[in-house]
Amino acid sequence: MASSGQELGVESTAAFKVLKRAVELDSESRYQQALVCYQEGIDLLMQVLRGTKDVTKKCNLRKQISSYMDRAEIVKKYTDQEREDGKYHRQIKIEENATGFSYQSLFQEYLNETVTEVWIQDPYIRQIHQLYNFLRFCEMLIKGPCKVKTIHLLTSLDEGSGKKQQSSGLQEIKESLKNHGVLLELKYSSSVHDREIRFNNGWMIKIGRGLDYFKKPQSRFSLGCCDFDLRPCHETTVDIFHNKHTKKI
Q1: What CA–CA distance (Å, rounded) separates 133 from 214?
Q2: How far is it, in rounded angstroms, from Cα 242 to Cα 110?
Q3: 89-242 architecture in CATH?
């Protein structure tokens, strides 16, 4: 079904708004953020192009898209160089009650077939919901495209009545991962405070709240209970870096 002229007008306005922001970020040498905006704006313009019937407008749109794509390619080279120089830093701010931030959505662009080893440092993999968070994170790693063979978890040991529950839960996850050919190495530390995740392809992600940034579902049968993209989040900040040599933690 073809888009109406009004719909195309709205899409076109949205596209150029995003591309204007891309140019502003580009001029400020904020290449990583600019590239994201260029890509989003170009995708929106492509949608407008597909819905446009006027030949002249189509021709103009193709020229504009080509121009933005050329600039995006140059910006991508800048970001690749920053990554090589170890200067890459992207920050994502998750607002209170925001949705669309499942582990898959957050991590997928940093996972590829070269990822075989993962290090997770998070002091709060203790309570039932935190164990489930860790389990969901492991499920994401198993599904690919990465070929994970070893997962290292450094966390703190629950000192209360939940100690047995924590130990039992992590052991069950370990056994389950073993059935998929993946080794889970568990380490406990009473002094661990930082929260970070490292992949052996050089990416490092720091989340202010660790893996535990989802809110409790309203009920057992509410949307977001199973699909974490629909689960409201607590406010937190995600910092993403790239290092040529990922150190073990």
Answers
A1: 9
A2: 10
A3: 2-Layer Sandwich (3.30)
